[in-house]
# Entry
Amino acid sequence: MKTVFITAGLCVVLAATGCSGSEAATPSGPTGPASPVQLTNCGLPLGIGAPPKRSIALEQNATEIMLSLGLADRMVGTSYQTDPVLPQLRSAYEQVPVLAKLYPSREAVRAANPDFVYSTYSSAYAPDAAGSRADLVKLGVPAYLSPFACENAADAIPTVSFDRIFSEVRDIATVFGVPERGEKLIREQQGRLDTAGQRVHTAAPSATGQPGAGPSLLWYYSGTTTPYVAGHGGVPDAVSSLLGARNAFTDVSQKWPAGNWEEIARRNPDVIVVADLTRGGDGDSAQSKIDFLRRNPVTSKLDAVVGGRIITVSGSSMDPSIRSVEAAELVAAGLRGFVR
# Structure
């Protein structure tokens, strides 16, 4: 499992893909569901009597989903920014108070007097962060957690798919009484996925131009001494499948296993997808990964490194979020470029 240190787009404009970013939805007052919303989220019953007006998003992926739904005017807090905010959401983001650089404490969360709390990582609800969801619910504050990251693994959705990501967006839109905004966002994201997949499927079936089942992709998240790579069931699997490629480590059951360079060299992937992380650790930035791959005696001989077949995506796009569509677009653009 990938560690979130306390931590694991709608679109950055890509000339190569012809992609255009969606604007944040126009904010407006609560329209309200006809009746209270009742749902079971990660095994915890949540009741929302009326659309929240004082919500908190505890990290960036949750924040960007809410901003994309036009909910900045109903947010009293955000925290844990891991990447530059998507350009089309920046002005909306600036309207929201930042409660902490990392996760806010339980005291800071309670001081903001929220009526809804949302995170895509279970670490946000740790005792030394916002506190448990059950405790928040006892205080009358519904606390939503991404179904991919449930505290109890038995409650979690084991395999990421874009349909499941869209279901989470739909949940949040329903809670806030703006289902039409949710459906609009989902249609936009699905359209971008369709375009990305179609363009790659019309190109050569292998990144190297060789016939076969499609290129193998090493999804390299972090670390140099010990590389953390994508295993089975996460966003990298979903993107690889969409694009007619294959995740080089999909046979490993963990979503983010610790790898080793000798085994990576043995598998010799056609393409390496590197995560660009801004947290400043060893092998976090995309450039530090690329520099390491080029100078290390083992990795410098990989076909993907020798051939320059390296694609960069944001680290947060490798987690289930609206940025995951951006990862599909960037990888699709890179694969098309490699077969020309």
